[in-house]
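User: Reviewer 2 asked us to show a designed sequence for the structure in our supplementary figure. I'm pasting the structure tokens here. Could you produce the per-position amino acids so we can include them in the response letter?
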């Protein structure tokens, strides 16, 4: 991983716990609860691709979302909250900062600014953070999606949308980072 590229997916199971956790941090966001959930999966299973790995992690997250256990729901919410709020002025994650750069160019004087919608979203869905794969869309498009999801008022759909977005973001990060040859 010293080259800045990700190791071949097929080699991840042979890496140390710290190295597997670092891969999760690069693909998702730094999050100890995600490490607890998924680091052992990366040891126990050999993956042919990062898409396969991310899909398996997505299944783990979906299992938490579908659980009737309040502790599983809280665990999932902690993992989802590792993503920074969209449009936040200070974003610790270099990757998220770059991915969200175009969102900070919109007109924040709009009556439903991104900050206001973040607040409204979090009031509508306590414990959740709005997560979307920005994928080059501008602030207006993201705000329309956010308004739709708030008006839909469906917590189950929101958890599923957040998991899907996290996996799309992770897959995009894997593609853009590049992967070392399998040695």
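Assistant: Here is a per-position design you can include in the supplement:
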């Amino acid at each position: 991983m010293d080259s800045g590229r990700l190791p071949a997916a097929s080699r991840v199971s042979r890496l140390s716990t710290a190295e597997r956790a670092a891969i999760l941090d690069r693909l998702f966001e730094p999050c100890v609860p995600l490490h607890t959930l998924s680091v052992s999966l990366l040891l126990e299973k050999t993956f042919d691709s990062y898409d396969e790995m991310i899909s398996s992690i997505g299944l783990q997250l979906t299992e938490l979302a579908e659980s009737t256990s309040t502790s599983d729901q809280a665990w999932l919410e902690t993992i989802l909250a590792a993503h920074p709020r969209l449009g936040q002025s200070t974003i610790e994650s270099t990757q998220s900062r770059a991915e969200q750069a175009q969102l900070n160019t919109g007109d924040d004087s709009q009556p439903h600014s991104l900050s206001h919608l973040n607040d409204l979203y979090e009031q509508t869905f306590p414990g959740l953070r709005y997560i979307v794969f920005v994928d080059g869309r501008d602030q207006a498009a993201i705000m329309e999606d956010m308004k739709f999801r708030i008006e839909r008022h469906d917590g189950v759909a929101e958890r599923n949308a957040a998991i899907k977005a996290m996996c799309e973001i992770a897959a995009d990060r894997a593609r853009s980072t590049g992967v070392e040859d399998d040695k």
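For the response letter, you might also mention the following. Helices lie at 17-27, 32-44, 50-66, 70-80, 94-99, 114-124, 139-152, 155-177. The chain has eight helices and no strands.
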